[in-house]
Automatic annotation (TrEMBL):
Name used for this protein in its record: ABC-2 type transport system ATP-binding protein
Record SMART domains: AAA
One GO term (biological process): response to antibiotic
Biased composition (Low complexity): 299-311
Molecular function (Gene Ontology), one example: ATP binding
Region (Disordered): 299-318
Cellular compartments annotated: Cell membrane
Gene3D superfamilies: P-loop containing nucleotide triphosphate hydrolases (3.40.50.300)
Length: 318
């Protein structure tokens, strides 16, 4: 069942459209990602879902309610993550939890939330003295304090080190597993790939694609990365005849070919025909990075050779 439904959403600032006909629905119990480059219109979209901005056109429903007209009811269903500037530096963790509990008629027990989010040791610490990861954990606790059915997390892990980011991912999964739907705004492909059940890729105010992370990767021209060292040189003409090749790179005697599953078989047949062996052959799925670049780039998308293919492969192999 859809808990959030957005249909034909439009919003312009000063006559400039920044959200231009966005539609998607979020099923109850999923982590739904909104992924896109800077300025794509992600925050404006979720602020319309939260009822913080009034759409110029289109409809938004949260559990069947209008976030603007039924704002008070929606705030009981939807928990939003605060921005850092919205908490005073001198407020302690305990004060923040107590203060936000007081906003709701039936708040969650903040002590349990603090325990769950590993904040019990920091209850007397002032907000300004918390580490980045601790601040994010507090924001998650505050977003959950009203026992929401859906929580909106916007760029939650920006600025965190890799360890703190992974810890925060685990917490977000725990939130989903506890039955809360998560609407997650991110521009980290790895984060979307790791966490999200489905992802809407937003580019220049429009939904460029909506699918599972695996589905997005599968539809990319770069879904598979094949790399090997040929036992003897292989001509460019031969490579050009391979089906579904997106890019070919040569690096230190190795060939790195971005393509699809179809390309793998074709490469192996080509090598066999020429009596060439593929030394240290590696076949890896591309990451969401490549699909994202395909979906958000201009008309030459998928045709250019970038460092991403190699980076993807390195990630897969490490
Ligand atoms: N209140 C506002 N007034 C005018 N322009 C705005 C306002 N808020 C956002 N914008 C502009 O609208 C565009 C979309 O902004 P938005 O914050 O929705 O994008 P985003 O995808 O969340 O970007 P980012 O990843 O950089 O946060 C940007 O060009 C931004 O500068």
């Amino acid at each position: 069942m859809a808990i959030i439904e957005v249909s034909g959403l439009r919003k312009a600032y000063g006559g400039r459209p920044v959200v231009d006909g966005v539609s998607f629905s979020v099923e109850e119990g999923e982590i739904f990602g909104i992924l896109g480059p800077n300025g794509a219109g992600k925050t404006t979209t979720v602020e319309c879902v939260e009822g913080l901005r009034v759409p110029d056109a289109g409809t938004v429903r949260v559990a069947g309610l209008d976030p603007v007209a039924d704002h008070e009811q929606v705030t009981r269903i939807l928990g939003a993550q605060l921005q850092e500037s919205e908490l005073q530096e001198k407020l302690t963790v305990r004060e923040a939890l107590e203060l936000y509990s007081a906003f709701y008629p039936k708040p969650a027990d903040w002590r349990i939330l603090a325990e769950r989010l590993d904040l019990t040791d920091r209850l007397t610490a002032r907000f300004g003295k918390l580490s980045g990861g601790q601040k994010q954990r507090l924001f998650i606790a505050l977003a959950l304090i009203g026992n929401p059915r859906v929580v909106v997390l916007d760029e939650l892990t920006t600025g965190l080190d890799p360890r703190a980011r992974r810890d925060t991912w685990k917490l977000i999964e725990d939130v989903r597993d506890s039955g809360v739907t998560v609407l997650l705004v991110t521009h980290f492909m790895e984060e979307a790939q790791h966490l999200c059940d489905r992802v809407a890729v937003i580019n220049t105010g429009r939904v460029a694609a909506l699918d599972t992370p695996a589905g997005l990767i599968g539809r990319s021209a770069h879904s598979t990365v094949i790399s090997f060292t040929p036992s003897r040189p292989l001509g460019d003409d031969d490579l050009a005849t391979l089906p579904a090749v997106a890019t070919v790179e040569r690096k230190d005697g190795r060939l790195v070919i971005n393509g699809t599953n179809e390309t793998v078989n074709a490469v192996l047949s080509l090598l066999a025909r020429h009596g060439i062996t593929a030394q240290e052959l590696r076949v890896a799925d591309a990451t969401l990075d490549a699909a994202f670049l395909d979906l958000t780039a201009g008309p030459t998308a998928g045709l250019t050779t970038g460092p991403e293919a190699t980076a993807d492969l390195t990630q897969q192999e490490s």
